[in-house]
Design goal:
Layout: E1 4-9, H1 13-24, E2 29-35, H2 38-48, E3 52-55, H3 64-74, E4 80-84, H4 88-100, E5 104-107, H5 116-125, H6 127-132, H7 138-142, E6 179-184, H8 188-196, E7 207-211, H9 217-228, E8 232-235, E9 246-249, E10 255-261, E11 264-270, H10 282-293, E12 297-301, H11 310-318, E13 322-326, H12 336-342, E14 348-350, H13 352-364
Parallel strand pairs: 1-2, 1-3, 3-4, 4-5, 6-7, 6-12, 7-9, 8-9, 12-13, 13-14
Antiparallel strand pairs: 10-11
């Protein structure tokens, strides 16, 4: 029975062995090969025809980003998950790799010696991200293999939904948009760049964002977006005043909520329990914005695995706000936006290419 075939590329023999043991232990996965550097990896791709590659960005002879660029030229359709250390320098390199075409990332645990904690971490963090890319091919690729319940990736079957939204979701934008709240996960860094870089410097409302990402990476993502966008993008810290024409990204491992203080609204970060196995969680942010801004919230759900943001969208809709979801064709993984559309909470389903224009039109039409 065909399995998801994986090639592991990492300079460390310890990491290769650990990944091989964990991934090969899953009934839906098969490690077809390993490589200690990019040159060997490129030779093995043609021989082994993997469905997905797990790639470090720090390697001798041929760096990860060089390997990625070469893979993209020859095998553009193979998903690549970056599996790398959590440092400031590596975060920048990883974001560059994402821009080159890497489809997701997982930070390595601090201890990769094969202890139970490291094994559990790899199992819980990496395997769901691998399987998410093959959800649409479940029947043709994986036959009757049960893909598991990790993060509920496969517990909800999302049908293909026409982009022509029915009359019960007809657009009603009489309420003034006061804030844009965005949730994203897998494929999110590139999607956020595509959307935010098309917003004008005088964008008339604030933007708050949850992008599923580890610590360190979120600060570098904010810096990268600021360098490419007309609006300023910052990593959120407690006490930030929410102002028009600026955007804040939740820091890795922290939820963000909005709170009224006097005549203004400020951001507060906290480390309360994870929701949907996530911190930051989109649900936490969306629930908070609905409580503060009510019908003035425009929620945007971009590409991502899982269902984080679904309940938050319900909160926004119940408060009178509106929801835009990214379409399936332009999503790297249509888990988050797909669950919102399937539940009937999306007012519009929009391609990534048209997302910025849709947001601008809704904010301007008031």
């Amino acid at each position: 029975m065909p399995l998801i075939k994986i090639l592991i590329v990492d300079a460390s023999v310890v990491v290769r062995r650990l990944l091989n043991n964990v991934l090969d232990g899953d009934p839906a996965l098969e490690v077809v090969g390993t490589a200690p550097n990019g040159k060997i990896a490129l030779a093995k791709i043609s021989q082994m025809n993997p469905d997905l590659i797990v790639l470090d960005v720090e390697m001798p002879e041929m760096e990860g980003w060089e390997t990625l660029a070469a893979i993209q030229k020859q095998h553009k359709d193979i998903p690549i998950i970056i599996f790398t250390a959590l440092t400031e320098l590596v975060a920048v390199t990883t974001l560059n790799a994402m821009a080159l075409g890497a489809t997701n990332y997982v930070a390595k645990p601090q201890n990769m010696k094969g202890n139970e904690e490291a094994l559990e971490y790899v199992h819980n963090q990496l395997i769901p991200k691998i399987k998410a890319f093959f959800k649409g091919k479940q029947s043709e690729k994986l036959g009757n293999i049960k893909l598991g319940e990790t993060n509920n990736i496969f517990t909800t079957q999302l049908p293909n939904i026409s982009q022509s939204i029915s009359s019960n979701l007809a657009v009603n934008i009489k309420s003034k948009v006061e804030i844009v709240a965005i949730g994203a996960s897998t494929g999110g860094p590139n999607a956020l760049e595509a959307v935010l870089q098309d917003l004008p410097a005088n964008f008339p409302v604030p933007i708050v964002i949850v992008q599923h990402m580890p610590p360190v990476f979120t600060k570098r993502l904010a810096d990268r977006l600021t360098s490419k966008c007309q609006i300023r993008v910052e990593e959120a810290v407690t006490g930030c005043i929410v102002e028009a024409g600026r955007a804040w990204i939740a820091p890795g491992d922290y939820h963000i909520v909005l709170e009224k203080q006097g005549f203004g609204v400020r951001i507060r970060t906290h480390q309360e329990a994870r929701e949907n196995s996530c911190r930051p969680a989109v649900d936490v942010l969306f629930r908070s914005t609905a409580k503060i801004y009510g019908a003035g919230v425009l929620g945007v759900v971009l590409t991502g695995m899982g269902q984080d943001g679904l309940l938050g969208c319900q909160n926004i809709r119940e408060a009178g706000g509106k929801i835009i979801a990214q379409d399936e064709a332009s999503s790297v993984v249509w888990g988050m936006p797909g669950s919102v559309v399937n539940s009937g909470f999306a007012d519009r389903v929009v391609s990534l290419q048209d997302m910025a224009r849709e947001i601008i039109d809704r904010v301007s039409s008031q």
